[in-house]
Each structure stands twice: as structure tokens, then as C-alpha cells.
Amino acid sequence: MTEAFVALGSNLGDARAQVQEAFAALARLPDTRLLAQSPLYLTPPWGVLDQPPFVNAVARLDTTLSPHALLDALLAIERAAGRVRDGQRWGPRILDLDVLYMDGVSLSDERLQLPHPRIGERAFVLLPLNDLAPSLELPGQGRVADLLARVDTTGLERLP
């Protein structure tokens, strides 16, 4: 089994319910165990600012899926939730799932980069990731808790 972390986000429809259902879908993946889920956070939009706030979280998995097989499974969960990828980056979405990190995997191709190259810039990823793995060392980026200390978390709110 390989430890993996997946970011979850939604800002359309019932975003909170979308993220909760995505956790449940991750728990149903073959050859995968959902080990932990972070609290949910209400976060301001990033990239394209003229859109609703997001609900963001992170899942910790153990999986025997390859990185690309995990990515394909995440894309299938997004499609099942109603997401249509139209090429727009950072815009509103019913569900967004991203592989952030897989233990021992360094990968960069046209479909996937691991560890995710922009973790250190994104408070909406670092805050929930820190809840699960503050001492996780991301190769080439640093320790999660240290990265979190360097980003602005203004406007991020932990949901009850």
C-alpha cells in the first residue's frame, strides 16, 4: 500500500454535500482505504475571484493503485458528480479532486505531476493537509507545517 493525499473542493450546488459524498466515493475505490479526512474549510476563490467561495478538504488514503489509475478514479468520481471539464482553469466547479502526493512517487508527465507543484502556494490545500500530516515532507517544497506558516490564511474558515 502507498500513502496518498487527495485535495477535494467544490463551490457549486451544495458544496459541503459534494465534498462529503466525494469522501464516501474515495472510501469505495478498489484497492484503496480512506484513512482520514480533514475538517472542511470554507475558502475564498483562488485564481478566478468572481465566483462563490469553495468548500475544501484533504483525504489521506492507502492505495495499491498506480498514480495514473488513482487519477483516473478521481476523474470518474468528478464525472459522476456532474463535473464537465471545459478547459477553464480555476473557475467554479461542482467537484474538483487532485492527487497531491503519493509516498515515494516523483512524477511529471502531461497528465500528472507529483508531488503537486503548487501545494506550497495554496492555503486552501495546506490548511486541511496540515490537519492530517503537519510533518509530511514534500520533496522539493518542504514540510507542510512550514509551508503553511508562509501563506496567507485570511478568509479561510473551518466549518463546524
Automatic annotation (TrEMBL):
Enzyme class: transferase
This protein's record includes keyword Cell inner membrane: no
Location of the 7,8-dihydro-6-hydroxymethylpterin-pyrophosphokinase domain: 89-100
Entry keyword Plastid: no
Residues annotated as transmembrane: none
SUPFAM superfamilies the record matches: 6-hydroxymethyl-7,8-dihydropterin pyrophosphokinase, HPPK
Functional pathway: Cofactor biosynthesis; tetrahydrofolate biosynthesis; 2-amino-4-hydroxy-6-hydroxymethyl-7,8-dihydropteridine diphosphate from 7,8-dihydroneopterin triphosphate: step 4/4
GO biological process, one term: folic acid biosynthetic process
Entry EC number(s): 2.7.6.3
A GO MF label: 2-amino-4-hydroxy-6-hydroxymethyldihydropteridine diphosphokinase activity
UniProt entry keywords in alphabetical sequence: ATP-binding, Folate biosynthesis, Kinase, Nucleotide-binding, Transferase
Family annotation (InterPro entries): Hppk, Hppk_sf
Residues annotated as signal peptide: none
Protein function: Catalyzes the transfer of pyrophosphate from adenosine triphosphate (ATP) to 6-hydroxymethyl-7,8-dihydropterin, an enzymatic step in folate biosynthesis pathway.
Family: Belongs to the HPPK family.
Name of the protein described by the UniProt record: 2-amino-4-hydroxy-6-hydroxymethyldihydropteridine pyrophosphokinase
